[in-house]
Amino acid sequence: MGRAPCCDKANVKKGPWSPEEDAKLKSYIDEHGTGGNWIALPQKIGTAFSLFLGHANYITHAMRHDCELGLKRCGKSCRLRWLNYLRPNIKHGGFSEEEDNIICSLYISIGSRWSIIAAQLPGRTDNDIKNYWNTRLKKKLLGKQRKEQQAARRGNSQKQEMMKKGRQSSMVPNVNDLNQYWPQPRVLPPIPYSNQEPRFNDHASIRKLLIKLGGRFADDSDDQPIINCTPSFQFPLDASSLQPAYEQPTDALINTTAQVTNAPYSLDHGASIPILPGGHSSFSEETLEELVYNNPHRLEGLEFLYGNDIVNVNRGASTSTTACGGSIDWGEMSSLVYAPVSNSNNETFQQGTLYESVSNSNNETFQQGALHECGFNELRYSGSQ
DNA sequence: AAGTTTGGCAACCGCATCTAT
DNA sequence: TATAGATGCGGTTGCCAAACT
Fold first, then answer.
1. Residue A314's beta-bridge partner residues?
2. Region Disordered: what ranges (predicted)?
3. Residue A60 CA to nucleotide C12 C1', Å?
4. What is the C-alpha R_g of chain A?
């Protein structure tokens, strides 16, 4: 037996919202709130209009018609319209460079968790960010990658010329040497999965963590971002404080979370902005390229950034999204997260936001990582139970 | 100028999770 | 504890306007 539909599909309007519908929904929510029940909202709006008409000095035919109909929309549709368009302080378009950086950074860190990414950008909706990523940001990166490839090809042909002339074969680039910042990855032992251990591989757990860290979820009326738009990591980091995730038992992870939560933690430090190869602390275009293209581990979900995958852009963004593989394989992503990185002193350590070291305003160094404190170690294995 | 293709985005769909009973 | 219904989320679709031929 299937689930009952949330509304009478045959009797609800679909498609674009008219200004009248918007006005109805907005005025009702402004006055009464959502009432905590989106499904019942369309009917409630009809009732409210009836009451309104009861007190109106004159009633037009159209007004009565509206009243009888209520709002012929599915509750889910009302919710979506409100959240993505009618809600106050929604920003549309005009993404800043900083916002681009944050989106790219978080996408690479946590994948297509649009709601979490949106929570870091006040005024932005997950839908907006998702669309922006699919239609603009991804292509922006792709364009840069093509330029890189062309440049590389030019470089290669020059090298081939040199080889023909009998130069040393050591000039042939070794794939492993292509990036000094990314030595051969260590093969990490699998973490045994146990259902008994606390897991953070669901939205609720992440949400709880965000609440702990004082992000937007801490108070629905408070849109404070968890991360500041201007990440301000100090580099080089204190490498001694960086612990490979897999060496810590889960309990330690939890303790680390508590430690961070209890620390005199300033959220100004960009809780989940990854530290990048080469020690860059924010996403300039160059550092983003480094992370994506010089990473020996291909980023799942970002295959389009690598030249030899066919990006099937048939029609519209959605098709290309599918062709490029929309979902993140956390097992693969972890190889990015835990890939070793050398800092400017050529000290190699495990790179990843889970165990980034951050100094707070008192110059105290501690383990940090917002989503990652609870997320990656578990998320990596969520699909391999 | 007309037809076709592409890009951008609002909205829908289905599933997972949460919550109330 | 089980279940039904509500909510939230990510993926996908389809419309429309702009760009291109």
1. none
2. 142-174
3. 41
4. 25
Structure token digits, residue A185: 């990855």
Residue A254 CB contacts under 8 Å (≥ 6 apart), including other chains: A198, A374
Strand B lies under 7 A from the Cβ of residue A139: yes
Query: In this predicted model, what pLDDT tens digit does every residue of A171-194 receive, in sequence order?
Result: 332 323 223 222 233 333 333 333
Q: Which of residues 49-108 of A touch strand B (CB under 7 A)?
A: 73-74, 76-77, 80-81, 84-85, 92-93
Residue A240: both structure tokens together: 């001694």
Q: How far apart are CA A377 and CA A304, in angstroms?
A: 26
Q: Could you tell me the two tokens for A302?
A: 């970002």
10 Å CB burial of residue A193 (0-12, 13-18, 19+) is: middle
- Where does the pLDDT of residue A235 fall: very low under 50, low under 70, confident under 90, or very high at 90 and above? very low
Query: Which among A318, A320, A352 is positioned nearest to A333, based on CA atoms?
Result: A352
Total residue count of chain A as it appears in this document? 385
Q: What is the Cα–Cα distance from A13 to A336, expressed in whole angstroms? A: 45
Distance CA A370, CA A23 (A): 39
Domain positions in chain A: 12-86, 203-379
CA-closest candidate to residue A238, choices A109, A355, A354 = A355
Q: How far is CA A33 from CA A7, A48, A71, A126, A224, in A?
A: 20, 12, 15, 22, 21
- The mean pLDDT value for A158-164 works out to 56
The C-alpha atoms of residue A133 and residue A116 are separated, in whole angstroms, by 14
CA of A240 to C1' of B12 (A): 50
